[in-house]
Amino acid sequence: MNKYNICLLKGDGIGPEIVNEAVKVLDCVADKYGFQVNYDEALLGGSAIDAKGTPLPQETIDKCKASDSVLLGAVGGPKWDKLPGKERPEAGLLGIRGALGLFANLRPAVIFEPLKSASPLKDEIIGDKLDVMVVRELTGGIYFGKRGRREADGEVEAYDTEQYKVSEIKRIAKVAFEMAMKRNKKLTSVDKANVLEASRLWRETVIEMSKDYPEVELNHLYVDNTAMQLVINPGQFDVILTNNIFGDILSDEASMISGSIGMLASASLSDSSLGLYEPIHGSAPDIAGQNIANPLATILSVAMMLKYSLNEPKAAEAIENAVNKVLAENRTPDIYEEGKNKVTCSEMGDLVCKALA
Ligand code: NAD
Ligand code: IPM
Ligand code: MN
Fold it and tell me: Which residues bind NAD(+) (predicted)?
């Protein structure tokens, strides 16, 4: 029997609630498909600051490295918002992405059939189906460039630096081209090459790499235009390749294609099979502790883990099918529509398990 060691980083706010439901579903699917999952837990973000005085304890990095895969809830919250940048919960998240070399972040914006009417987009814009894969560079760019404050002309100036090496662009572009090859062979590279030097190098490098993928239809869009195109004509996109900060923003926007940010899963991948899986949303402090968060983004992140790190594609597909089935009748408040059953976070986890059985 295959055995997998999963490190859980429950995090802050709704993090523990949604991770508990995802674990419930992972246990159900493991039973059904005959593999075993062992869990370890580690602290990240605000909970780590409170317990250990740092958002990313060394023990957390060690436990993640010793595991087959990592499942994360979310970090952050008002309690820690006044801390200096390097001490904030979010610095822990950037730190673990860097420490595990998780340079490729896959964020699939898909619409589940029963949720078509929950999407804020009109039916004619959604069309038959929507399935956009955002490939976000995750360990470079302005998130990891030089930043600080200095004196300038007698006042304080703050700076953050957008910077990319050719090798960093190449490795993420490779992921996106390979992804496009497995899908509809269409790749849109998103940048701001009309203004930013790092974007010009990005575009040149992607064009150079496209020679190795003649079957992939490549186009380039500026990020401002992309933001608009995503709501007016999302069907034009197959794979979107973009940098760290544009990917962050565009994936929240793309999540609304699916009806709610509570639906969008993600996989953060490295050169090895070790990956970190998490919903794209945050710790939602406004609804934490009420058992009303949507756990499906985290549950679908488990499906991505089974597909990309654990090589259990059948179990992954079973979770996606179970989610589709459950959504026909049941909704957490963020995706609620009249005539459906309004369910809690934990009830949603139970229902997905039941649909798996
Ligand atoms: P957020 O994603 O936490 O919340 C935005 C809105 O979406 C809120 O109204 C929230 O209630 C709702 N929402 C989010 N997830 C939901 C879910 N699963 N079900 C139902 N509703 C959901 O973004 P924010 O409010 O900008 O950030 C809150 C905190 O989370 C901040 O500290 C931020 O830094 C952090 N954050 C962390 C991550 C992460 O850990 N990966 C991602 C984004 C934001
Ligand atoms: C995300 C989040 C993080 C990011 C923050 C919390 C550091 O918004 O995972 O999308 O910007 O990458
Ligand atoms: Mn984000």
Answer: 77-90, 282-294
Phi-psi region of 148 (alpha: psi -120 to 50; beta: other; left: phi over 0): left
Residue whose CA lies nearest to ligand 1 atom number 44: 282
In the chain, where are the structural domains located?
Answer: 1-103+264-357, 120-258
Give the ligand with the smallest distance to the CA of 15.
Answer: 1
Would you identify the CATH topology of the domain 120-258? Isopropylmalate Dehydrogenase (3.40.718)
Residue list for the binding site for NAD(+): 77-90, 282-294
Nearest CA to ligand 2 atom 11: 248
What confidence tens digit (pLDDT) does each residue in 33-85 have? 999 999 999 999 999 999 999 999 999 999 999 999 999 999 999 999 999 99
**CA neighbor of 243 nearest in space, from 182, 163, 133:** 163
Ligand 1: centre distance to CA 281 (Å): 5
Distance from C-alpha of 330 to C-alpha of 355, rounded to nearest angstrom: 12
Mutate to test the pocket of ligand 2, among 106, 248, 251 (most ligand atoms within 8 A of CB): 248
- Could you tell me which residues come within 8 angstroms of residue 101 by beta carbon, excluding any fewer than 6 positions away? 139, 270, 271, 272
Phi, psi (5° rounding) for residue 183? -115, -125
3-state secondary structure of 293: coil
| Domain at 1-103+264-357: CATH code | 3.40.718.10
1-103+264-357 matches 120-258 in fold: yes
Question: Do 64 and 7 touch, CB atoms closer than 8 A?
Answer: yes
The DSSP letter of residue 54 is: S
Tell me the pLDDT tens digit for each residue of 300-324: 999 999 999 999 999 999 999 999 9
